[in-house]
């Protein structure tokens, strides 16, 4: 059976109707996209049809699909996910998780996700969200606690995420207490993903105010690290970099550094 199709005849995004082309069809929902399975049409045609369908989603639908899938995940954490670094990580802790911006995709991927934060309101919200994922026990997985005193056994997690937490340390001792607490619950061979403020690239623009803390050009006060300090800490805690240290300079107002470490196996 020969049938010539034009995409405008085939796809109407409003309701995804098929115009001028009716055959036995089954609509399959795949991650909020629709694929049309056509009886009697070869596999190659199905691939083309699927690409056409996805390609002509309106911008609002595309944006919503991305939001529903990834949430507001940290772009540098997303980079590691794209590289497959954490493919074998099942038990994942977001230490200082806040509203859970980094957790939606991980929950949807089937990982056994845990979160800790001092804010009881955000933990309750996350327990509600996590309740729809069968691999998670919301009450056990999401806890109100401080990061420097994590309520978990040693060597529990394959991946520990620390996003915008360590730069709130009050001094070096507090910084190391937070870091050591997260490192304690990480399994040997596990990964530590950390995003934190640094002085890298803006050394002459920040003003030291004591205890390792600085006044930044954007007006905020943060505990700041530099590359030498991160390399020294990597050795001290018994880790190794699995990615080079990377820093983003935000128009000389602040710098955010990505520190990716793997815990050395005995």
Summarize the structure in words.
- The protein has 266 residues and is an alpha/beta fold.
- It folds into 2 domains: 7-68, no CATH class; 71-263, Vaccinia Virus protein VP39 (Rossmann fold), CATH 3.40.50.150.
- It contains 9 helices and 13 strands.
- The chain has helices spanning 7-10, 43-55, 59-70, 75-83, 104-108, 120-130, 138-141, 172-184, 227-237, and strands at 25-30, 33-38, 91-95, 112-117, 142-144, 157-163, 186-198, 207-210, 213-215, 221-223, 239-241, 246-250, 254-263.
- The strands form 3 sheets. Strands 3, 4, 5, 6, 7, 11, 12 and 13 form an 8-stranded mixed beta sheet that branches. Strands 8-9-10 form a 3-stranded antiparallel beta sheet, with no helix packed on it.
- 27% of the residues are buried.
- Residues 1-49 have low confidence and may be disordered.
Identify the notable features of this structure and list them briefly:
266 residues, 9 helices, three-stranded antiparallel β-sheet, disordered N terminus, alpha/beta, eight-stranded mixed β-sheet, 2 domains
